[in-house]
Specification:
The complex is a heterodimer of chains A (319) and B (252).
Chain A: H1 3-15, H2 28-53, H3 62-87, H4 93-101, H5 119-139, H6 145-173, H7 177-196, H8 208-213, H9 221-239, E1 249-251, E2 256-258, H10 264-274, H11 278-318
Antiparallel strand pairs in A: 1-2
Helix pairs in contact in A: 2-3, 3-6, 5-6, 5-7, 5-9
Chain B: H1 6-26, H2 35-62, H3 69-74, H4 85-88, H5 94-115, H6 121-149, H7 153-167, H8 171-174, H9 178-185, H10 192-209, H11 231-240, H12 242-246
The chains are: A mainly alpha (319), B mainly alpha (252).
The structure holds fe (ii) ion (2 copies).
One fe (ii) ion binds next to helix 6 of chain A.
Chain lengths: 319, 252
């Protein structure tokens, strides 16, 4: 088939809601966009382990420690599924990780903010995982099969993440005066970065139009952000906490909450590497990569030796 | 009931080993040599912390002083902990963490295998359940001793160094304390003399298969079982107990 026909056939499948699978023909740009998006998502899962992992050794009860360990472990699993999904498109996990370490590939900027008190573990589960779910539920219907299926698996675990986070916030907002303060302080710090997770306004997002046509995306950044705000404000009310936005109010006419403009200056600065923890996060991943190099080499060498031995044994048996 | 019945102390000792080693493994989370190892090490941390929790819960059932599992983990100070010194040793490089894990798993496996025959029904049930987890731990750590020992020249050297460095913390595990002698006499706990040779055989087998040398030093450190610890435990507790100590009585 000619390229043009292939492309028409490809678009027809997408229009008919048939998933694109790894062996199907796809435009180069579709492949590239997906590799970029999926790997960025994978990097976010892995870097996201750091701010939360930070509190594993300080978790305040055995129950909380077990939940947090399981949660951070899930994120590592998400990273793995997603790297695998990217590999079905011909990418190599090692290369992708390298791009993250050298700053060519991004990860979600939210993880460049610090976790300063235990309520931050609650706020991350509630808001950050909550925002992630809003986006990921949409992605369960994305046009690329392996990505959509990875999202289905991941979404199941994400709702547990959000629940455990909200439960921490609930315990703290009903706890001592100090705990309430921690909870409020963490909401103050995580609220705006969580809204920024949905990305720039639709008009300013460079890839959005094509992504819609290819049904990689089905809702705009602003739509998803609004959906998240609408779902979250009542939850904050139940906690008795104040969302740090004086302009926040229900707009009956729109049927949505209105909220203040986002500080895009801060957003772009954190994206460009000027967040409070950008350097630390990359340095931590770089260190894990460097310190682990000899371990990965050893595992490879051992596997090769073992294979050689097996070949040798088979030859002896045959002789 | 007196809080210090031998069974109560025994439960705490087992719980402390699991809690402290689980804590150390938790320090790896997000920093392991590969993502698969992050998952595996966290798995073991989860198993061990879960075991500690079950043991502390059982201990609180036996003593009516109104203590909770978290009081036991978060409100005791260094001398009250009864874990062996090996498990509180720092992670070091990956080879050191593997050596620590392997030495402990080899002991822990045969210990729990015997514990399944405990005259205490709760403990034998606990041992049956835990043995499944510990079997996996021992397989994991043995495989990594093999990979690192028989991998590259660098990994061989690092693994050998780690085995050497941690060796003198190992004797304590199979040397019975008064409490453990009594537990064995009551048929509640294993006889450590009995399992010692099985542990040593297993360690020997894996180490020689890995083309490594088992250290020959005979001088062993001890003290954990009577609450005399290394400097490391204080730092572990300072971190682990921070919130419970800074905000006493709060629910989290
Ligand atoms: Fe995730
Ligand atoms: Fe999550």
């Amino acid at each position: 088939m000619k390229e043009q026909n292939l492309e028409a056939h490809f678009q027809a499948k997408i229009d008919a809601e048939i998933k694109i699978e790894p062996k199907d023909w796809m435009p180069d740009e579709y492949r590239k966009t997906l590799i970029r998006q999926i790997s960025q998502h994978a990097h976010s899962e892995i870097v996201g382990m750091l701010p939360e992992g930070n509190w594993i050794t300080r978790a305040p009860s055995l129950r909380r420690k077990l939940i947090l360990l399981a949660k951070v472990q899930d994120e590592a699993g998400h990273g793995l599924y997603l790297y695998s999904a990217a590999e079905t498109l011909g990418a190599d996990r090692g290369d992708l990780v390298l791009q993250m370490l050298n700053g060519k590939a991004k990860y979600s900027s939210i993880f460049n903010y610090p976790t300063l008190n235990w309520a931050d573990i609650g706020a991350i589960g509630w808001l950050v995982d909550g925002a992630a779910i809003t986006n990921q539920v949409m992605l369960t219907r994305t046009s690329y099969g392996p990505y959509a299926r990875a999202m289905v698996r991941i979404c199941k675990e994400e709702s547990f993440h959000q629940r455990q986070g909200y439960e921490i916030m609930l315990a703290m907002s009903r706890g001592s005066e100090e705990q309430k303060q921690m909870a409020q302080d963490s909401l103050n710090r995580w609220w705006w970065p969580s809204l920024m997770m949905f990305g720039p306004h639709d008009g300013e997002s460079s890839h959005s139009e094509q992504a819609f046509k290819w049904k990689i995306k089905r809702k705009s950044n602003d739509e998803l952000r609004q959906q998240f705000v609408d779902a979250t404000i009542p939850q904050a009310g139940l906690l008795g906490l104040t969302v740090p936005d004086p302009a926040l109010r229900w707009n009956a006419e729109r049927g949505h909450y209105d909220f203040s403009p986002i500080n895009w200056d801060e957003f772009w600065n954190v994206v460009k590497g000027n967040g409070p923890c950008n350097r630390e996060r990359i340095a931590a991943r770089q260190k894990a990569c460097d310190d682990g190099a000899w371990v990965r080499e050893a595992a490879l060498a051992y596997a090769e030796k073992k294979e050689q031995k097996q070949i040798g044994a088979r030859q002896t048996a045959a002789a | 009931m007196d809080a210090n019945t031998p069974l109560y102390s025994f439960l705490l000792q087992l719980g402390d080993n699991a809690l402290i080693l689980g804590h150390r493994l938790g320090e790896w989370c997000g920093h392991a040599p590969e993502m698969e190892l992050d998952i595996a090490l966290t798995n073991i941390a989860l198993d061990l912390t879960g075991q500690a929790r079950a043991l502390y819960q059982r201990a609180t059932e036996l003593n009516a002083q109104g203590k909770t599992e978290d009081d036991l983990a978060y409100l005791r100070d260094v001398p009250e902990f009864r874990n062996v010194l090996l498990v509180e040793q720092p992670n070091g490089d990956f080879a050191h963490s593997i050596a620590r894990q392997f030495y402990f798993d080899a002991f822990n496996y045969f210990f729990h295998e015997e514990l399944t025959r405990s005259s205490d029904a709760w403990l034998s049930g606990f041992a049956v359940k835990s043995l499944k987890e510990i079997t996996y731990h021992l397989r994991f750590s043995s495989e990594w001793v093999l990979r690192l020992g028989d991998g590259t020249a660098t990994s061989h050297e690092k693994m050998q160094t780690a085995l050497d460095d941690l060796w003198y913390w190992t004797g304590e595990m199979t040397t019975p304390s008064d409490l453990e002698r009594q537990m064995a006499a009551d048929a509640i706990g294993p006889s450590l003399q009995q399992i010692k040779s099985r542990v040593n055989d297993r360690v020997n087998d894996v180490v020689s298969m890995a083309t490594l040398q088992l250290p020959t030093g005979t001088w062993m450190q001890s003290g954990g079982k009577v609450g005399r610890h290394t400097e490391h435990l204080g730092f572990i507790l300072a971190e682990m107990q921070f919130l419970q100590r800074a905000y006493p009585g709060n629910e989290w």
